[in-house]
Structure formats: structure tokens, C-alpha cells
Amino acid sequence: MLNEKEMREWREWAQSDALREDMRRVEKNRHNPFMVNGCVDLDKYIRFLTEFNAFANHARKPFHRIIDKDMRL
């Protein structure tokens, strides 16, 4: 829990022009590595997940096909 002095500092910081300008710069330079020409590139996303899984050293689970006549979300 923050004390009164810390809360006052956070409020002052939240209203600072420098913070707002920094957040504008961050937003302007934001980059999503999975987007290509405005669409999600699933191949890049799956490649990332596969490589991250290898990095995390998790064994792959065997594929089990879902068999159902009526599948709804």
C-alpha cells in the first residue's frame, strides 16, 4: 500500500506533460511482429509459439483429433 506522499508523487507524475509525450512516442513506434499488411500472419505466430515452446523446453503433446458432429463456440 502506498503512503500519502507516494500517492501524491504518482498523481503528479500521471499529469506530467513529459509522461504524456513519452507515451505518444511509444504508441507511434509500436510494432506487432505478427501483422503483415494489416492482417495477422498465422505462419509467423505458429513459428513463434513453436520456437518459444522449444526455448521453454516443453515436450510437444501428441495431436488428438476432436471428433464431434455439432461443434459450437
Fill in the keyword field for this structure.
3 helices; 2 domains; 73 residues; elongated; mainly alpha
**What percent of residues are in strands?**
5-15%
C-alpha-based Rg, rounded: 22 Å
How far the N terminus sits from the C terminus, by CA atoms, comes to: 41 Å
Overall pLDDT metric: 87
**Which class best fits the helix and strand makeup?**
mainly alpha
Low-confidence stretches: none
What is the spatial order of strands in the main beta sheet?
A: 1-2
Structural summary, described in words:
- The protein has about 70 residues and is mostly helical.
- The chain has two domains: about 1-30, no CATH class; about 30-65, no CATH class.
- Helix content is about 50%, strand content about 5%.
- The chain has three helices and two strands.
- The chain has helices spanning about 5-15, 15-30, 40-55; strands spanning about 35, 40.
- Strands 1-2 form a two-stranded antiparallel sheet.
- The longest helix is centred in the middle third of the chain and has 14 residues, at about 40-55.
